[in-house]
Specification:
435 residues, alpha/beta, UDP-n-acetylglucosamine1-carboxyvinyl-transferase, Chain, four-stranded mixed beta sheet, 27% strand, binds shikimate-3-phosphate
Length: 435
């Protein structure tokens, strides 16, 4: 599908971004392992989270929905999963595959998990390595680095492990595996990644403690079911935050957005670039801070971003590059080599596609150097099957001169199924055309 976008004369209105992707995945998985009925409202019905639901169903979990954003998971406890009759399909979702590998490692049965072409290229050794050290037998291409992966789990031993790179997926996989051991698993990160798993596992009654960059979990404690109201995804809101800053006549409010400090790097960086963002704190939901964000047109300037900030905005870097492309002066994004192993090689693809629109962006081994220009020009660009690249390019199209056509835009449904409808509600002239 092609998304055809005309830059609108103004960009005004309110948007409720879809439910947070990371929290939706975790709510389903933790709900499946709890004893009783977990009710999830605001569940993200994007393809990635649907992959998690389907894998859990194949493992014997009774799940209803999503129905109007509601998912009901009837969990049977830590020992309730069944050997799947077929290959588990994680689709495009790294979170599904990595978190479920942690669960599968604890199961006394055989399972196989696979994904789409993009996911089959992504590194899994970072999860399969430590899970093997806990005692799981795992097979896969390149000695367990690449999916499809098969797992024969059970009889796990606790592990003390320090992650070489901050990763919430790896941390979460090991914490989930830790639930199936009868000792204490300790996971230490080099810098803090998103902590939704820790918050939700604690809320469900897991014996889990956070001490600085170290998380300790004692296994075998039964989990209680939860009632979860998923806040809006700041990674989805980020597209509109950037478009709002860059558009000369903009006033947007993003409502009920997750404001977990491990996720709000994009707010901090845009503010440091001079963006007029206003945060209106709201009610806490799902054990997570939430609130609204108001954005109006601003003049941005470039800066340097790296270090511990990177995990706090890793998924927002494609759209941050769009902001930097139109900021005054130079932006340097470093320490972000992880971008190469996301849904696409985001360093090469973001640089290549934004350059087609006239951006002065240069790929570096661990990020980008971007020199701000005064205008971008509309162009035919490609998503390379990467949902966040597709939406970042659409935002560039909102502030470019002339028409922008984003090819391969169907992947947007992976994380933001209502994206085109939300753009149209803001009065943007946007069309979806079949290839
Ligand atoms: C996620 C963690 C991040 C992020 C991904 C979602 C999660 O990946 O990029 O989109 O839900 O835990 P890493 O753990 O690989 O950094």
């Amino acid at each position: 599908m092609r998304l055809i976008i005309q830059p609108p004369p103004s960009l005004e209105g309110n948007i409720q971004p879809p439910g947070d992707k990371s929290i939706s995945h975790r709510a389903a998985i933790i709900g499946a392992l709890a004893e009783g009925t977990t009710v999830i409202d605001g569940f993200l019905a994007g393809a990635d989270c649907l992959s998690t639901l389907n894998c859990l169903r194949a493992l014997g979990v009774d799940i209803a929905g999503p129905d109007g954003g509601r998912v009901v998971v009837r969990g049977g406890g830590l020992d309730s999963l069944k050997e799947p009759e077929t290959v588990l399909d994680a689709g495009n979702s790294g979170t599904t595959m990595r978190l479920l590998l942690g669960v599968l490692a604890g199961q006394p049965f055989y399972s196989v998990i696979n994904g789409d072409e993009s996911l089959r290229r992504r590194p899994m050794g970072r999860v399969t390595g430590p899970l093997r050290s806990m005692g799981a037998a795992i097979w896969g291409r390149q000695n367990g680095e690449l999916a499809p992966l098969s797992v024969r789990g059970g009889k796990l031993e606790p592990l003390a492990y320090t992650l070489p790179v901050a990763s919430a997926q790896v941390k979460s996989a090991l914490l989930l595996a830790g639930l199936f051991t009868s000792g204490e698993t300790i996971v230490t990160e080099p810098c803090r990644s998103r902590d939704h798993s820790e918050r939700m596992l604690r809320a469900a009654g897991a014996d889990l403690r956070v001490e600085g960059l170290r998380v300790r979990i004692r296994g075998r404690k039964p989990l209680k079911p939860l009632t979860i109201n998923v806040p809006g995804d700041i990674s989805a809101a980020a597209f509109f935050l950037v478009a709002g800053c860059l558009h000369p006549r903009a006033a947007l409010t993003l409502e009920k957005v997750n404001l977990n400090p491990t996720r709000t790097g994009i707010i901090d960086v845009l503010k440091a670039m001079g963006a007029p963002l206003e945060i209106i704190p709201g009610e806490e939901t799902a054990g997570e801070p939430a609130g609204s964000i108001r954005v109006t047109s601003g003049r941005l300037h470039g800066l340097e971003v790296g270090g511990a900030m990177i995990p706090r905005l890793i998924d927002e870097i494609p759209v941050l590059a769009v902001a930097a492309a139109l900021a005054e002066g130079e932006t340097l994004i470093r320490d972000a080599a992880e971008l190469k192993v996301k849904e696409s090689d985001r360093i090469a693809m973001v640089a290549g596609e934004l350059a087609r629109m006239g951006a002065e962006i240069y790929a570096r081994p661990d990020g980008f150097r971007i020199k701000g220009v005064r205008r971008l020009r509309g162009a035919v660009v490609d998503s390379h099957g990467d949902h966040r690249l597709a939406m970042a390019l659409a935002m560039a199209g909102l502030v470019a001169e002339g028409t922008t056509e984003v090819r391969g835009a169907e992947c947007i449904a992976i994380s933001y199924p209502g994206f085109t409808a939300d753009l149209a509600r803001l009065g943007v002239m946007v069309k979806e055309e079949d290839d």
